[in-house]
Amino acid sequence: MSKKVLLTSFTTWLPHQKSNTSDDLLQEVTKNDSFPASLTALRQLPVDIHQASDLVLAHINQLNPDLIISCGMAEKRSILTIESQARRENDLIKTWVNLPQLTTGLKVTDISHDAGKFVCEGLYYSLLKHLRDRDLQTPCIFVHVPLLSSQNLLDIKSDFSEIINRLLIRES
Fold first, then answer.
1. What CATH number is attached to the domain comprising 153?
2. Cα–Cα dist 139/15, whole Å
3. How far apart are CA 163 and CA 148, in angstroms?
4. Rounded distance between C-alpha atoms, residue 63 and residue 85, angstroms
5. pLDDT value at residue 9
6. Is CB count within 10 Å lower at the N or C end of the chain?
């Protein structure tokens, strides 16, 4: 049976944004049919913590994915960044994915310890808490995607695809 991967992205939230790079990246990556898994993309989530969380948690409960990768746009970053943790008030939850091992050798990916205090961190916290509270060991990460250009798209797409593949191999 094929592994199931849930990917999420957001819509835009500021008037100058023509698209959300997290959504653009998912559109590019899901064109690729060479993954050893079934990819489900829940794209263009509303930029609202509660609405986005409710939609994603409903998909998790329905799909029961083997891997969850949520994505958001980070206009001021220049590379992919995988968030190590999410916070809500005094509660901090770290991903149980070994991020140093996951990112070793990737060209344009690094680890971040600041998910941004916005809807991205709110969604990530909700996902990690949901999995923790149900004692599920499903790998779950949040990836911030920089602005995409013709100069960085291939490297970013390559690293993101490699992240998916590495996480799938670890779960085999």
1. 3.40.630.20
2. 34
3. 18
4. 24
5. 97
6. N
Q: Which amino acid is at 7?
A: L
For residue 152, the enclosing domain spans 3-170
- Tell me the mean pLDDT in the region 127-149: 97
What dihedral angle (degrees, nearest 10) is formed by the CA atoms of 119, 124, 127, 129? -110
Mean pLDDT of 34-50: 92
pLDDT tier at 13 (50, 70, 90 boundaries)? confident
Q: DSSP assignment of the chain, as one string?
A: --EEEEEEEE---STT-SS-HHHHHHHHHTT---SSEEEEEEEEE-S-HHHHHHHHHHHHHHH--SEEEEEEE-TT-SSEEEE-EEEETTEEEE-SS-HHHHHTT-SSEEEES---SSHHHHHHHHHHHHHHHTT----EEEEEE----TTTHHHHHHHHHHHHHHHHHHT-
- Number of structural domains the chain divides into: 1
Mean pLDDT of the chain: 94
